[in-house]
Amino acid sequence: MIRKMFMGMDHVGVAVKNLDEAINVYRDLLGFKLLRIYESIENKVKVAVLSTGGETKIELLEPIGSDSPVAKFLEKRGEGIHHIAVKVDNIEETLEEFKGKGVMLVDEKPRIGAEGKKVAFIHPKSVKGVLLELVAE
C-alpha cells in the first residue's frame, strides 16, 4: 500500500529572463499579489513570490549568473514552467521511499530551498519530463 505523503501543492516555479518584466505581467496584467522579492545566493536565483489567491504560490525565477541551473534551463528551453512543488509530510522518508522504488533523484538528501524550507528535487526523467520539487511542511 502507498502511504499518503503529499499534502498539496506548494508552488509552481517559472523561469524568466527578466524578473521586473515578469512581475509586470503577473502582478499588473494578470492581477496576482506580489508577496516578496529576494535573492537566494546559494540557489543562484532572484525570486519573486506571488499569491494565486489560495494556498499555492507562483515563484518567478531569474538566474543570478550564467552557471545558475535556471540559466541553463532558459538557454535550453526558454522561459516557462521550470518546476512544480508539492508539500510532503516527511521529506526524508519520502526520498527514501522513492529511492527504494528506483526513482531518479536530483537530491538524495534535503537541502535548504529558496524560501528557507527543506526541499529536494526528483529528476524529470522519472516524472514524465517534469522537475518535481518536494517541500517539507
Looking at this protein, list some descriptive labels.
2,3-Dihydroxybiphenyl 1,2-Dioxygenase, domain 1; 3 helices; alpha+beta; 137 residues; 8-stranded mixed sheet
Protein model, in words:
The chain is an alpha+beta fold and 137 residues long. The protein has one domain (6-136): 2,3-Dihydroxybiphenyl 1,2-Dioxygenase, domain 1. 22% of the residues lie in helices and 39% in strands. It is built from 3 helices and 8 strands, in the order βαβββαβαβββ. It has helices at residues 19-29, 69-77, 91-100, and strands at residues 6-15, 33-40, 45-51, 57-63, 80-88, 111-112, 118-122, 132-136. An 8-stranded mixed beta sheet has the order 2-3-4-1-5-8-7-6. A hairpin with a 4-residue loop joins β2 (33-40) and β3 (45-51). The longest helix is centred in the N-terminal third of the chain and has 11 residues, at 19-29. The mean pLDDT is 93.
Name the shape in a single word: globular
CATH fold-level name: 2,3-Dihydroxybiphenyl 1,2-Dioxygenase, domain 1
Radius of gyration: 15 Å
Number of helices: 3
Q: Bin the helical content.
A: 10-25%
How is the secondary structure organized here?
Elements: E1 6-15, H1 19-29, E2 33-40, E3 45-51, E4 57-63, H2 69-77, E5 80-88, H3 91-100, E6 111-112, E7 118-122, E8 132-136
